[in-house]
Amino acid sequence: MAIYLTKESRVLVQGMTGGEGVKHTRRMLAAGTDIVGGVNPRKAGRTVDFDVPSA
To answer: Which of 5, 41, 53, 55 is disulfide-compatible with 9, CB 3.0–4.6 A?
Structure first.
C-alpha cells in the first residue's frame, strides 16, 4: 500500500503527545508539513509546546 502526499496534504498525528510523537511532529513542522492536530485517547484537549491541538 502506498501513501501519496502532496503540498496540499494535511496531516493528523496519532500519539503526538508521547515522546516519539513530539520528536517526529517537530521534525515534520520544521520540514513544512501542514499538521492540523494530533490524537491520543488519554490526553484529549491538550496542546503541546508547538501549539497544535490534541484530541
So the answer is: 5
